[in-house]
Amino acid sequence: MIIISALYLVSLYGTQAVLLGPILLSDGSGDLDIPWGLLPPAVIANLILAVVAIIFLIKRVRRVQADLSARRRLNHLALAMKLLTIPFFITHLQIWSMMLAAFLVIPGLQILLPFGFLGVAFAYSVVLVTSAYSISGLYVQYRLGNLTGKKFARNVIFQLIFVLDVISYLVFYFQIRRSCKEQTGSEKGES
Q: What string of DSSP letters covers 19-51?
């Protein structure tokens, strides 16, 4: 799981670097040599890795459910994915804000405003991928009886909302840790 997750993050930040790199490396002349030809393949590669990560998570849920150390790893990985994408979202918001501002200020570019939806859609795809990790952890806890159906549904909904997904998983992360510690303690007591 870690390798696929790392590849996804590298792909995500690489996609962002295609746009951000020329801006950061510009000499201030206003000439930005953005390699637009690299953007579609980078986005497609990122989306393919997103699908692979989600499929991999779905296939591993049963195995994770049966193994305490795997549950811990999934919990840590889900939190890491949430936290490691925060810089992406901050930078993504800045890039798209500048682009949309240019679309509004420069005459004739208003026709390109609908492209802002592409930026939002791409950002939301990242939320869905990181939430797949969190939802997998939630599902495992639900199947183990540590979550009621209502709490599970509420937390899944939280995982689909920007910003709230990170906050709710931080809370849930500590609940899973406590649950795993209690289970470890009960296993040692039985031995």
A: HHHHHHT--SSS-----TTTHHHHHHHHHHHHH
Per cent of the chain over pLDDT 90 is: 47
How confident is the model over 84-137, as pLDDT tens digits?
999 999 999 888 888 788 778 888 877 877 878 888 899 999 999 999 999 999
* Eight-state DSSP code of residue 174: H
For residue 15, the tally of other CB atoms under 10 A from its CB is: 23
The per-residue pLDDT for range 144-157, each reduced to its tens digit, is 888 899 999 999 99
By the 8 A CB rule, do 11 and 126 touch?
no
Q: Where are the alpha helices (DSSP H) in 37-108?
A: 39-66, 68-84, 86-105
Q: Which of 25, 20, 18 is nearest to 42 (CA)?
A: 18
Closest CA to 56 of 148, 132, 107, 147: 132
pTM of the predicted protein model: 0.84
Two tokens, residue 162: 């920007």
Structure token pair of residue 115: 């492209």
CA angle 158, 83, 64 (to 5 degrees): 70
